UniProtKB/TrEMBL annotation, chains A, B:
This is Phosphoserine aminotransferase. The modification N6-(pyridoxal phosphate)lysine is found at residue 196. It comes from Arenimonas oryziterrae DSM 21050 = YC6267. Coiled coil: none annotated. GO terms for cellular component: cytoplasm. L-glutamate binds at residue 42. The gene is serC. Pathway: Amino-acid biosynthesis; L-serine biosynthesis; L-serine from 3-phospho-D-glycerate: step 2/3; Cofactor biosynthesis; pyridoxine 5'-phosphate biosynthesis; pyridoxine 5'-phosphate from D-erythrose 4-phosphate: step 3/5.
């Protein structure tokens, strides 16, 4: 056994205790005499597991009964198309704030479905900051306002919730859900792919204010109608049962760690450690994001020149530090330090970075 | 350890050897120092695993390079909506042959997207037979012909491939993929949810003739455009990596068993055993499907009266025979005997049925 520190952006590290439980009960789950992968989603054991996972998520995030909690397939990108279809008619407008790659993708998927407006964008600036609130050009009658609280590739994060008046906020929390406390009641929709802070890829969670559903006036295929999933406890068709079960275990682990508040403290500490190391490297390492918008979850950084990337990655892997290669859209390095990454992992990375800079400086 | 015979319709039994391998390498996969759930889908190890799974599927089914093999999320029901969007424009017609519940569902999901025609249906007859070919009212210019080779709930299966001329056949093979040899070149599209013969729920396979894609003339969200998945090796967005990996292990197991031909022999034998027991029970057990259309995969059957259902299920569970409750749409019992169900499991069921009939007859 030689598990390493895994800084992959997603699919990403899971708590080892969760993996050990999955392993222990893989052939026989609870009293079912079968694997959790083999039991019917309509059987009582899985229904109970699914319901408990939803209850735990509601408790951890403080989600009221005004919201449906959906466990869907397709990834956040699919939701980026399904949500505009479900929240508005084709003649209505969706406002989009762009602070990185994923905001752009969400916009692309919405464009064929309704009118869209880019409220503000830092694309020309290379996505290094959040455009000042005073510059946002909101529609007067937007059906929703979409933004990405944390941009996984560019490492730009909102540290508070934008105020756009009564327009429902729709937020892609894929890379920051449960990484800190969030006032869910401020949102119309929170959605997130599971594969960063919650579990394996293949499950997407949508927390949707119930009154927003079913008003689009479109003639949708029933499988695209989120209200059908809402009314059927996300079992309008066969859900991704194994992923749902693993998310349930991750949520139990999160509760045992102290929940979102404890994660917030730890994630703040981890990110401070890493940004301090970068800023204190005398310019050897570089993160280009405006300090007030730096992500706690994804820390992109660059070496003095791109020729050093390969030796950095090779030596990091040898030192047990995996998945540090930056996204192809940006290059350089990226350390994703989600909930399952312990402080010791970041300490180890910071130590390695200092050592590498000395040897290659 | 007391694993039982699991007759669940899906999620369904997996080969025990596959589960043992998953268990053994759950914390450290190959040389990755991480779980397969934790590694990036863009990393070489997963890319190799994904590509090998596709190669094995192509080999097992004899899929030529004229076809894309896609590994998608969303279940077969999502494909029932995505396929009409991708194969035809809104003014074109899709022909639908209905032989059970899932054909109906596919039609419902297509109706908002294009013109549809029900070519023939046995709905009024309770879905107990395949309407005679001579009664099918095909459109002259259908963009595709959709049918369900095996209806999981009603237990109606085609034992040959329908001839509809040059119209591309689109077939939902969710419950019978790889259960027998199939001439893929006769099809435009074969699609299947994984959770019956291939792996865990949360992955859907689509085998699509390449020339059929990209001609619909619609302005689709990019994530709904199957050609984008085709061009990106099903990694246009993050795929369901763990499910993909498990399907890969199931395919290796299938190859070791002798592939589709060996499964065909075994599945024929298993279904003959069970139908013989039903037909030879002196009317105690009853299957209503016309013998020529009886499914090899899903065998619905009824007891003399519904009051016997509960004791039957209870005693069956005590005897280590799980998941026999029929679908709520039909009632009664259902034994799903997919590839992973050994002959010994069916023998055990048949023995129990005889014994139960004697005690409660």
């Amino acid at each position: 056994m030689s598990r390493a520190y895994n800084f992959s952006a997603g699919p990403a590290a899971l708590p080892e205790a969760v993996l050990r439980q999955v392993q222990a009960e893989l052939l026989e789950w609870q009293g079912e005499r079968a694997s959790v992968m083999e039991v019917s989603h309509r059987g009582q054991a899985f229904i109970d597991c699914a319901a408990e996972t939803e209850r735990d998520l509601r408790e951890l995030m403080g989600i009221s009964d005004d919201y449906s909690v959906l466990f869907l397939q397709g990834g956040a990108t699919t939701l980026a198309a399904l949500l505009p279809m479900n929240l508005a008619g084709p003649e209505q407008t969706g406002d989009y704030l762009l602070t990185g790659h994923w905001g752009e993708k969400a916009l692309e998927n919405a464009k064929p479905l309704l009118k869209t407006r880019v409220v503000a964008s830092d694309k020309d600036g290379g996505y290094k900051r959040i455009p000042a609130r005073s510059t946002w050009q909101l529609s007067e009658d937007a059906a929703f306002f979409h933004y990405t609280p944390n941009e996984t590739i560019h490492g730009v994060e909102f540290h508070d919730i934008p105020d756009v008046g009564a327009t429902p906020l729709v937020a892609d929390f894929s890379s920051s859900i449960l990484s800190r406390r969030v006032d869910v009641s401020r949102f119309g929709v929170i959605y997130a792919g599971a594969q960063k802070n919650l579990g394996p890829s293949g499950l997407t969670i949508a927390i949707v204010r119930k009154d927003l559903l079913g008003k689009h006036g479109r003639n949708l295929p029933p499988i695209f109608e989120l209200q059908n999933q809402s009314k059927n406890d996300s079992m309008f068709n066969t859900p991704a049962t194994f992923s749902w079960y693993v998310v349930g275990l991750v949520l139990k682990w999160l509760k045992a760690q102290g929940g979102a508040a404890a994660m917030e403290t730890q994630n703040r500490r981890k990110s401070e450690l890493l940004y301090s190391a970068i800023d204190g490297s005398g310019g050897y390492y570089r993160n280009d994001v405006e300090p007030s918008a730096r992500s706690w979850m994804n820390v992109p950084f660059f070496l003095p020149n791109a020729e050093l990337d390969k030796p950095f990655l090779k030596e990091a892997e040898a030192a047990g530090l995996l998945g540090l290669k930056g996204h192809r859209a940006l290059g350089g390095m990226r350390a994703s330090i989600y909930n399952a990454m312990p402080v010791s992992g970041v300490e180890s990375l910071v130590g390695f970075m200092g050592d590498f800079a000395k040897r290659h400086g």
